[in-house]
């Protein structure tokens, strides 16, 4: 599923955004670490660029999300996570123990979860499904403890 990221500068320009080094770094970091939390993005952006304010990183995350270059997911009880895989209505597996997140394809083909039983007149464009459970590592850890 991993593809080489297009030229991040071109991505920004196509989206109508000014190309800035924090935005380029934020795109590259999120591309290499799917489902990364904002504070971890800030750490990795600083490793690349030196001093960058947290606000600058958060702003870059917000504008990139607003124009659809990134998707923001917010599993309950977890800080917001960011990923570059957008527009395919994929879902997530979330480990209750360690917070690990994995992508899962939509359960029954192309965006079937958009077929709500009753849409109450809403124009629905996205469905968010989180499957909660325990990842293999946490299962193994529990088995050892037990
Ligand atoms: Zn886990
Ligand atoms: Zn994902």
TrEMBL record:
SUPFAM superfamilies: Winged helix' DNA-binding domain. Keywords: Cytoplasm, DNA-binding, Iron, Metal-binding, Repressor, Transcription, Transcription regulation, Zinc. Its main location: cytoplasm. InterPro entries: FUR, Fur_C, WH-like_DNA-bd_sf, WH_DNA-bd_sf. CDD domains: Fur_like (cd07153). It is found in: Cytoplasm. PANTHER family: TRANSCRIPTIONAL REGULATOR FURA, ZINC UPTAKE REGULATION PROTEIN. Belongs to the Fur family. This is Fur family transcriptional regulator FurA3. It comes from Dietzia cercidiphylli. The lineage of its organism: Bacteria, Bacillati, Actinomycetota, Actinomycetes, Mycobacteriales. The gene is furA3.
